[in-house]
Specification:
Elements: H1 3-7, E1 10-13, H2 21-34, E2 38-41, H3 46-52, E3 58-62, H4 71-83, E4 88-92, H5 95-99, H6 103-117, E5 121-125, H7 133-146, E6 150-152, H8 164-173, E7 179-183, H9 189-197, E8 202-205, H10 208-219
Parallel strand pairs: 1-2, 1-8, 2-3, 3-4, 4-5, 5-6, 6-7, 7-8
Helix pairs in contact: 4-6, 6-7, 7-8
Length: about 220
């Protein structure tokens, strides 16, 4: 798989809390140049990025990175992000609801955000590093029943990131229309290829363009 083909799977990501507009522009420029699947940036930069790069597919995060905002706040954040130009939303679930076994609340929140998204893509971050396998399986059902488009492994801010074992577990338990995004700790070309081979449709990575630059230059 060539570098440009790999980048078509990548949400080129910059969610560092100290990111400046100059940093965001650099990511957006790379997204345009290398035709990444999207750029994933903080919500407060969505409007500026959309104005400066109107054809760029912009993803942003909601309830990030801890997920314990109320559903009403997450819905409001989602609506604002879409109004300002986001095409994709990566939401963080409420892990407290998961730990107390209230999967109905999780499903309902996912459904509310999908309704707010309309025809825009909703990815659901479950933060696998804090979950048991049985909780992961239950969340596959929540995401399927809530009508989301993707299950996503991690924020990249937790105690661990993506694993191939979790991708294999998801594939057994998600609905037929749910896709998979791996994120967190993916820092090599070998990693990217492995996750795609296991069935991931998206890769969340901040280092992908830098890793693939030499290969891209060779392909030109």
């Amino acid at each position: 798989m060539l570098g440009k083909e790999l980048l078509a799977y990548v949400d080129h990501t910059l969610l560092r809390p100290t990111a400046t507009w100059d940093d965001i522009k650099e990511v957006c420029d790379a997204g345009v140049t290398y035709k990444t699947a999207s750029v994933c940036i903080p919500p407060d930069f969505v409007a500026s990025a959309h104005e400066a790069y109107p054809k760029l597919n912009i993803c942003t995060v909601i309830g990030f990175p801890l997920g314990y905002e109320t559903t009403e706040v997450k819905v409001a954040e989602t609506k604002q992000a879409i109004e300002e130009g986001a095409s994709e939303i990566d939401m963080v679930i409420n892990l407290g609801d998961v730990k107390q076994g209230d999967f109905e609340a999780v499903t309902n929140e996912i459904g509310a955000l999908k309704e707010a998204c309309g025809d825009k893509i909703l990815k659901v971050i479950i933060e696998t590093c804090y979950l048991t396998d049985s909780e992961k399986v239950a969340l596959c059902k929540c995401i399927t029943n809530g009508g989301a488009d993707y299950i996503k492994t991690s924020t990249g801010f937790g105690s661990g990131g993506a694993s191939l074992e979790d991708i294999r577990l998801f594939k057994k338990h998600i609905g037929p229309n749910i896709q998979i995004k791996a994120a967190g700790g993916i820092r090599s070309i070998t990693d990217m290829k492995a996750y795609i081979a296991e069935g991931c449709s998206r890769i969340g990575a901040s280092a992908a363009v830098e890793l693939l630059k030499d290969h891209l230059d060779e392909e030109v």
